[in-house]
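Quick one: co-fold with adenosine-5'-diphosphate.
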Amino acid sequence: MKKLINAVENVLTEQLQGMAAAHPELNISLDPKYITRVGAPFAGKVAIISGGGSGHEPLHGGFVGHGMLTAACPGEVFTSPTPDQMYEAAKAVASDAGVLFIVKNYTGDVLNFETAAEMVHSEGIKVQNVIVDDDVAVKDSLYTAGRRGVGTTVILEKVVGAAAEEGYGLDACADLARKVNSYGRSMGMALTSCIVPAAGKPTFTLAEDEVEIGIGIHGEPGQYREKLRPADAIVETLALEILDDGAYKRTLREWDRENATWVERDVIDEPFKAGDSVIALVNSMGGTPVSELYAVYRKLAELCEARDITIARKLVGPYITSLEMQGFSITLVKADAEILKFWDAPVSTPALRWGV
Amino acid sequence: MSDVITKAQVITWLENCAALLETQKAYLTELDAAIGDGDHGLNMARGFGKVKEKLPSMADASIGSILNTSGMALISSVGGASGPLYGTFFMRASTAVQARQELEPMDLVKLMEQGIEGVVQRGRAEVGEKTMLDALIPALNALKSQLEAGAGLSDALDACVAAAEAGVRSTIPLVAKKGRASYLGERSVGHQDPGATSATLILGLLRDVVKGSGVS
Ligand SMILES: Nc1ncnc2c1ncn2[C@@H]1O[C@H](COP(=O)(O)OP(=O)(O)O)[C@@H](O)[C@H]1O
Ligand SMILES: [Mg+2]
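Sure, here it is.
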């Protein structure tokens, strides 16, 4: 293992200490671990809180700031954070408008955030959880834990953060979040594996000429392995999985504040169709250079155009990574006027910054 | 042997869990690496390490409050899917025994029933989906039916652990339908579930503690 590490057990703490030193506009608690915006709580504004395993930076801590997240809870590398982190973060930043937890769909994250929501609720704070489950590499929801939460998370946190900034209430923020999730689809691939510091060795191994199509952001297995093909061919595979993905149906849980219980709701994502406008994210898994991402974008733009899909906005770079893994993912989110308005709204965070 | 579980035994059991999960860390992590993300051993060792830290301050507490404190320690330190599940198990189990200072055999049944109900509500899994429930539910059924048939606590716990062990083995040919392992689909076949394995280790220690103190 060749990494810039002092001691394996201090990786996360030292990363947070460095963030605190570099970003005085963030408050960082080390016990339990959470990152908040200086100045929070903000009266009348819904607090948007996300979190998940570390190793996906800049997600989520790099998105804390004006117009995006109010707080983020980093877990150990690739391990979901614990409810006490979410609970303390919520208590630190919640206003009367309540707290929205944005949760990527991994069993660990979902269960820990559900536990946290129950704790936050019993403190008398209004709370709701929304799930991001956009990874089309996972086909069915009946025999698996369902689609994983990946690239759409970045776009959702930007859009919903801006809506909260504008004064959307908790239910309106949750509805908007559900819409963005429902409109978003992603898929990724890996050229190489990655090394979790505590494990010290690669999560999986790929031969020199082999790639994994449909990889998750923690190195979860993809759909299949194959020999490396030219960039255009790989982009086409991923983009068409996204563009041709049919209606996706699953059951998601929501917090019923009135009865203090979880209720289930069937959710269906409609496929993309000609004439749609989208926000596109071409994302590096961490080890792939931006130059290669532009090669990906070139082909993606061509494929979208051929299907009469307009890329209204785009983001190209490392935004939801998998440590040092080489590879990329594509995310497309159908964008209506409301989503575009909040996408364009000012944002000022360590990793995304415009309009300010 | 006397057919009760004392508070001292409960504390010894939890201490032994911390010790065993520390020594079995690599084994559980290896099982999880095959079908998950290779952190189950780390998660459990960290969690029960925290439980152990809390025990000295619990000497005067009831069994219910020891279990509740343990559950909260697990929830706030394990992470992953198993943290809220094991944490919920202990916290729910505590409501079944409340302020008791010792447990009758049927209290243990109630404790497990409530704990398992909590795991099911939180994780929404069923038997046969390759999770810890594949060990816990047969273990409970065996314990209960043995006690109802008039067996002593020691024999009933033997049956309970044997059923958990059979349950763990039953996970090997199963396709995972819950948790991270579910993303492997058919490729999860042939591997033993890490959570069912840790649950069985924990039940085995309970049996050992109960039997170790009794006159057989
Ligand atoms: N929905 C569920 N219900 C019951 N047990 C589950 C569920 N999902 C996962 N598990 C258990 O959790 C174990 C994995 O725990 P762990 O590795 O600590 O968490 P993670 O999968 O988040 O990395 C699995 O082996 C399985 O027994
Ligand atoms: Mg695991």
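If it helps, The longest strand of chain A covers residues 248-256.
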